[in-house]
Design a protein that fits this description.
By secondary structure, the chain is mostly helical. The protein has helices spanning 2-19, 31-50, 62-77, 84-109, 115-133, 135-144, 164-181, 187-207, 210-230, 239-260, 269-274, 286-299, 310-313, 317-321, 334-367, 373-392, 399-424.
């Protein structure tokens, strides 16, 4: 009986934390703050429910330990941060992420969550996101008809996030889970995958965020390699049916995108791909932000400016650049921003946490060719999407991206535990 209750709690927890971005903004000035608040309340309630039965491992996984050490250094940095209040806010958010990882890792180890249930939740939220993103397209087609080229500002396709770059990254980080669904070959899954992939491609094309094109290429490559390596057993003779729905969806998605998006417009795929470069213009001014962060790191290499400080420390640099710009809150590169705030050691620690997860996922898929190997391998595509976004934007500030990081690292921690158990046996 208690096992059933715990399973229900685990499934409900996962569903609720992924539904948080769907919360309407109402009169809230900053919906992100509300999302983090709701997340912390759900964490607290879940802990209160399972605490009588929960047993913690005497030896925490390396991934959880690394996150704990990182947060410890972030807490220490608040003592010298020029922006104590925002530093405290950032630390509390990192703390909630760690709690979420521990909870999801617990439910995975106790077999309260299956990878297919996780997949269904993620792709269900993806469907909501893509439909919400494409509402301006649906309205335009309803008003003007299907034979008309659509000329809409990419900024209209913000979806649930209020920012087109975040919306595109959120779609792309979830797309690999759609591809995993295809492992169970049947008509229902194939149809579902085609619809979701088409919606995802259209979302990315209309948002016209260049980083998402790179992520789409990465996901496609990982999907092809993963399919060839890990579709085995009774499915091996049907591997063509694993790829056919994806090829069909890509053809439909890009054909519709080419039909609806006006050729030659700034949003067209050709123009966006051709504009990808690391010049100031090609990066939309990001190289300027990166150089500012690097300059600050050179001046404060050991301990940085303290967590949350970059929002203020970046302001003096904009006296040099001129007053025609608003002072940006972020360096548009999470790795540089963390290094600016916590010093080179803190930045390297943050990078190493991601390297550790990549190592675990590759190790698990390479050494243990199990029925879940494709799931682990496709998690690499999701992680790759996050790293691309973190190198160009600021996903660490956005709950909709951090909940995916929470999930991916909880899977990594679960695999570490699994590896240790198998070695001991």
């Amino acid at each position: 009986m208690m096992d059933k209750i715990e399973t229900w709690v685990g499934k409900t927890y996962l569903l609720l934390v992924f539904l948080i971005p769907v919360i309407p903004q109402s009169n809230t000035m900053d919906v992100v703050g509300l999302q983090w608040l709701v997340f912390s309340v759900i964490n607290l309630l879940t802990i209160a429910i399972i605490i009588p039965r929960i047993t913690f491992s005497k030896k925490p996984t390396i991934i959880i330990t690394l996150w704990g050490v990182f947060i410890f250094f972030a807490i220490l940095s608040t003592t010298y941060s020029i922006n104590f209040s925002l530093g405290l806010q950032d630390v509390s958010r990192w703390g909630q992420i760690l709690i979420g990882m521990v909870l999801l890792n617990y439910f995975l180890k106790k077999n309260r969550l299956s990878f297919m249930y996780i997949t269904n939740v993620v792709i269900g939220i993806l469907f909501i996101e893509t439909v919400y993103i494409l509402i301006p397209l649906f309205i335009s087609l309803y008003v003007n008809g299907f034979e008309t080229e659509v000329v809409l500002n990419p900024g209209l396709f913000n979806g649930l996030t209020g920012n087109k770059n975040i919306a595109a990254a959120s779609v792309m980080i979830k797309l690999p889970f759609v591809l995993y669904k295809l492992k169970h070959l049947n008509t229902k899954n194939s149809f579902m995958a085609v619809v979701l992939i088409v919606l995802s491609i259209l979302s990315v094309l209309f948002i016209a965020a260049r980083a998402s094109y790179i992520s789409l290429l990465l996901t496609t490559t990982v999907f092809i390699i993963g399919g060839l390596l890990y579709i085995n057993g009774s499915y091996k003779n049907k591997i063509v049916f694993y790829f056919v729905p994806v090829v069909l969806a890509y053809i439909i998605g890009f054909t519709l995108g080419n039909k609806f998006i006006k050729s030659g417009s700034a949003s067209s795929l050709t123009n966006k791909v051709e504009s990808i470069s690391f010049t100031r213009e090609g990066s939309s001014g990001r190289t300027l932000l990166w150089s500012d962060a690097i300059s600050f790191i050179k001046d404060h290499p050991i301990i940085g400016g303290g967590i949350g400080s970059w929002k203020i420390e970046s302001a003096p640099y904009w006296n040099i650049h001129g007053t025609q710009y608003l002072v940006p809150y972020h360096a548009h590169n999470d790795f540089l921003e963390i290094t600016a705030e916590l010093g080179i050691f803190g930045g390297l620690l943050y990078v190493f946490i991601f390297v550790r997860l990549i190592y675990i996922l590759i190790l698990r898929t390479k050494l243990y060719n199990s029925e879940n190997s494709l799931f682990y391998f496709l998690c690499l595509a999701s992680l790759g999407t996050y790293i691309i976004d973190a190198s160009l934007n600021f996903p660490m500030e956005r709950y909709i991206m951090q909940i995916m990081i929470c999930l991916l690292f909880s899977v990594g921690a679960f695999l570490e535990s699994k590896n240790e158990n198998e070695k001991s046996n």
